Amino acid sequence: MTAMPPRPVPIPGGSGVRAQGVRVREVVASDHAAILALNNSAVPHVNALSMEEFAWLSSHANFFRLVEDATGLLGFALVLPSGGDYWSENYRWFAARFDRFVYLDRVVVAAHARRRGAGRAIYDALMAYAAGTWPRVTLEVNLRPPNPDSVRFHEALGFTTIGVREYHEGANAVLMMEKAL
């Protein structure tokens, strides 16, 4: 049986000239090593993953897409549906408050691809995927250590802060954010 090539996901609403040549597509197994390396290069903005953790997340994701251009991988997003048994305390925080949601567990855009439309393209694809099916998209953004660029980006996309979760005796904190659809 011949493997089908990955299907490109249209980018609704476009991102203007900055996103020219950028495409979002479903992740396939041959992408995993590069995605795991990109994820682990983005600590502390996301937590590092072992191969086993990554395998569990990728097998439970209901939206797992990457964004690329002619040079290769620019970023990825991994989203989990509500109702799962995920070990993340942030996921559990949302599960205690909402019956139905999708949880953006991690999104990483390579440093060289930031402010070029890659992040916007993957979020446009996520919103198109979730619209009409899920009532909200949830996520967290680091407050301590700070990630002000991410906070501004998410606020510009219409995400609102609905809480703060502190951990490690207050040394770390995240803004708990949602976008109602």
Structural summary, described in words:
By secondary structure, this protein is α+β, with helices and mostly antiparallel strands. The protein has one domain: Gcn5-related N-acetyltransferase (GNAT) (Aminopeptidase), CATH 3.40.630.30. The chain has 5 helices and 8 strands. The protein has helices spanning 32-41, 51-60, 89-95, 118-130, 148-156; strands spanning 8-9, 23-26, 63-69, 72-81, 102-109, 136-144, 160-167, 172-180. An 8-stranded mixed sheet has the order 1-2-3-4-5-6-8-7, sandwiched between helices. Strand 5, helix 4 (118-130) and strand 6 form a beta-alpha-beta unit. It is globular, with a radius of gyration of 16 Å.
The SSE order reads EEHHEEHEHEHEE
How large is the share of residues in beta strands? 25-35%
Overall geometric form: globular
> How are the strands of the biggest sheet laid out side by side?
1-2-3-4-5-6-8-7
Query: Could you state the CATH homologous superfamily?
Result: Gcn5-related N-acetyltransferase (GNAT)
What top-tier CATH class fits best?
Answer: Alpha Beta
CATH architectural group = 3-Layer(aba) Sandwich
The major sheet is characterized as: 8 strands, mixed
The mean pLDDT is: 90
Overall strand count: 8
Give start-end ranges of low-pLDDT stretches: 1-18
Tell me the structural class.
alpha+beta
CATH fold naming: Aminopeptidase
| Cα end-to-end separation | 39 Å
